[in-house]
Structures are given as C-alpha cells and as structure tokens.
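Annotated sample (chain length 160).
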Amino acid sequence: MIHQGGEVLCKPWKPKNGEQFPKSAFKLDMRSRTIACPGGQTQRFTLGTTVEFEAEECDRCPLRAQCTEARPGHGRTVAIGEDEALQHRLRKQVKTPAGRQRLRERVGVEHRQAHLARRQGPRARYRGVRKNVFDLRRAAFIQNLEAWQRRVESSPPKVG
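Output written by the structure step:
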C-alpha cells in the first residue's frame, strides 16, 4: 500500500519468463489499461489480475514459440500486479541517467544497514519492542564507533 506524502525509490522487479518474451516485451498503456503483445494483439486489463490473450490469435501468431509454452488452444498469460503503475514508473525511471543516479544515492545507506543486519542477525533477540529498539541502537552505536576508528586509523598523522 502506498501512503500519501512519501516517495518510493527502488529498483523495479524483474519479471522472468525463462526463454520466452518477458513482460517488458509487452507494451503496457497504464492510462487506457491495455496491454499489447509483441505480435500486435491487444487486451484490456485491471490491476491485480492475469490477462490471457486470445487463444486463436496466439495459435496463428508466428512469434508463439518465443512467447509461450502453453498448449495449442491456450493463449499467453501475463500477470498484472496491484502495484503495476508503480512498477511501470520505476522501470521508466531506471532507464534515465538521472533515475540511475538517484538509485545510487541509496547505496551508502543500504550498505550500512546491511552491516547492521549482519551484526544483528535475521531475528529479534528479545521479546518486546522496547528491548529490541535498545539492542538495535546499541548495535548501531558499535557500528558507528568501528567506522570512526577505521577512519581515524586510515588518515595520515598531522604534522604540527
């Protein structure tokens, strides 16, 4: 669920379809809620559903082998997520230099969070929010002290 007042800035999901055409090969028009296959067939969709293209047209399509492994009499299906509009916007953003630059800004923060997660482990140690918040702050403090120590040790001594 997306709440008002915030911006989602992350990499979009990469849909996979093996050797067949991926979802990115299909043209999604979010305004008119239509999806067009590489062979030219167009279907309407609603968010959170799966679109199945016409079986008769898929059977006649010269791109069928590259598109689907479905049995004859069944068309290609494409899942449309509830957050498809967000994913569509993120995919467009990643294709621009400015969008990639904004994603790189996250690396420093995520790197530090990964260090903290490695130190803490995948699960909370204690019962109750208060104790776990204290434990997280303790771990973050230790992490910051170690980073500060590395910076001090790597800087050249001042001559005065």
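Annotation: The mean pLDDT is 88.
Annotation: Residues 129-154 form the longest helix (26 residues).
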